[in-house]
């Protein structure tokens, strides 16, 4: 079992701290950069986070190889969107 570290990411203008395994840090940083890029490209700033998250989640469900969608991944993405949304409301 890997040790978890605290990683602080900036999504939009909000900093969010999450515990993650060390080997996941780089991927989460890239994911935050992708999310911020998507948000910046959406003109409707009031709904930008929700729309960007939905777009990224939808893209992750589209499999070009014809493989089945991983339900665990879909569930994890939905949880992440929920946590980020809740954090931004606080």
Automatic annotation (TrEMBL):
SUPFAM superfamilies referenced in this protein's UniProt entry, alphabetically: Cell division protein ZapA-like
Coiled coil: none
Organism ancestry: Bacteria, Pseudomonadati, Pseudomonadota, Gammaproteobacteria, SAR86 cluster
Family statement: Belongs to the ZapA family. Type 1 subfamily.
Keywords: Coiled coil
Designated name of the protein: Z ring-associated protein ZapA
InterPro entries: Cell_div_ZapA-like, Cell_div_ZapA-like_sf, Cell_div_ZapA_N
Keyword Coiled coil attributed: yes
């Amino acid at each position: 079992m890997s040790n978890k570290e605290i990683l602080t990411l900036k999504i939009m203008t909000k900093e969010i701290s999450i515990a993650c395994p060390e080997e996941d840090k780089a991927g989460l940083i890239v994911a935050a950069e992708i999310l911020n890029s998507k948000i910046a490209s959406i003109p409707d700033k009031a709904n930008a986070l929700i729309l960007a998250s939905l777009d990224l989640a939808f893209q992750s469900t589209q499999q070009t190889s014809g493989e089945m969608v991983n339900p665990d991944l879909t569930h994890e993405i939905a949880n992440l969107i929920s946590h980020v949304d809740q954090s931004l409301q606080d």
